[in-house]
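Good morning C.,

I know you're traveling, so I'll keep this short. The sequence:
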Amino acid sequence: VISEVVTLNLGAVLAIVQQPTDLILPSGASGSFVINAEGYEISYQWQVSQDGGSSFTNCTSETATEAEFSLTMKERYDGRQYRCIVTDGSGKSMTSDIVTLKLS
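The tokens, ready to paste straight into the viewer:
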């Protein structure tokens, strides 16, 4: 008995191909952290730490769930750290490098 031929399609493997980098801005200026990832049905969640990276909480701004996270610099943001959790359609996730927002 010979079965029918079937094809197994695997989704693209989740990978971060471009890490975000530190951002240096003067007060009042706008800027963005950018990540580039590959995979199947990717979603993004940017997180922020205000305690030197000991703990992170989800950012809630309009672009917090996009590959490019935009913000307007305020003096109180100086030294905050950010990272992005990238998740694919199967639920597998990766976390980006931690980057720092600096006041120029």
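Safe travels,
E.
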